[in-house]
C-alpha cells in the first residue's frame, strides 16, 4: 500500500466515527468535526490530498517545534501519509477493542452498577427467596 485511496480513507473515516459515543444533540461533537475537516476532500484529483493537506501543516508545526527543542532537523521528523493512515487504522482498532471491552465487562458483571440493597435482593432471588417488605411508618 503505497498511497491510500479515497475509498480507504472514507472507510477509515467512517470506522473512526462509528467508534465515537452517540450524541443526543443534533450538532456533531468537536472530535467528529475535527475528523471531518481532517478527512475533507480538498482536491479530488489527487487521492492523498484530502488527508495529507489537512494534517501536514499540523504535523509539520508540531515536529518542527519538537525538532528544534531536541536538535533534530524538521524534515526528518515529519510522517508520510502512509504512516498517518496506519496510525489512524490502529486508533480505530484500539477504539473498537475498548468499546468491546466495556460491553463485555458490563455483560459479565451485572451487579457492578447496583447499590447494596438491590444486589442483596437479587442474590436472594437467585436462590429462590424473596426479601420481606420493609415496614415504613407513616
Automatic annotation (TrEMBL):
Residues 57-74 have a biased composition (Low complexity). One of its GO terms (cellular component) is mitochondrial matrix. Residues 57-80 are annotated as: Disordered. InterPro entries: Fmc1. Pfam families: Complex1_LYR_2 (PF13233). It comes from the Eukaryota. This is ATP synthase assembly factor FMC1, mitochondrial. It comes from Aureobasidium uvarum. The lineage of its organism: Eukaryota, Fungi, Dikarya, Ascomycota, Pezizomycotina.
